[in-house]
Amino acid sequence: MDIIIDRTTAVLSLVGSVGWYTIDDEVFFTEEATSTPSALEIDAEVLRLQTIHDSQQYARDRAKSYPTIEECLHAILDDDLDALQAKRQAVKAKYPKES
User: Fold this and answer.
1) Number of C-alpha atoms within 13 angstroms, CB side, residue 18?
2) What is the pLDDT of residues 4-46, one digit of tens each?
């Protein structure tokens, strides 16, 4: 499932958890707010966080495909590290880091 960063996540990133609330994705600030970012700043933070999240898709794909801890343990105990490294390299080749 692909994650979409919302305005709530952006405001939490910008100001923390105190002094604001949302209703239907609209942000309201209370007297306790130490910072009140503008709608443009919130939207820019949504884009920034989404870009970071999207840029890490390869890592999430790799994590699902790498050998399990159990497979790693067996490779260590069976002195089969070359095969383990070959599996890991195949996963890295299938899901390369994006530049």
Assistant:
1) 4
2) 999 999 999 999 999 999 998 889 999 999 899 999 999 999 9
| Domains: count for the chain | 2
| DSSP secondary structure code for residue 75 in this structure | H
Q: What's the pLDDT at 99?
A: 56
Residues 10 and 46 in one domain: yes
Q: Within this chain, do residues 65 and 35 fall inside the same structural domain, yes or no?
A: no
pTM over 0.85: no
3-state SS class at 38: coil
Please give the pLDDT value at position 90.
94
**Region for residue 24 given its phi and psi (left: phi exceeds 0; alpha: psi -120 to 50; beta: otherwise):** left
Let me know whether 98 and 70 are in one domain.
yes
CA distances from 81 to 6, 67, 73, 94 (A): 43, 12, 10, 20
Range of the domain at 7: 1-55
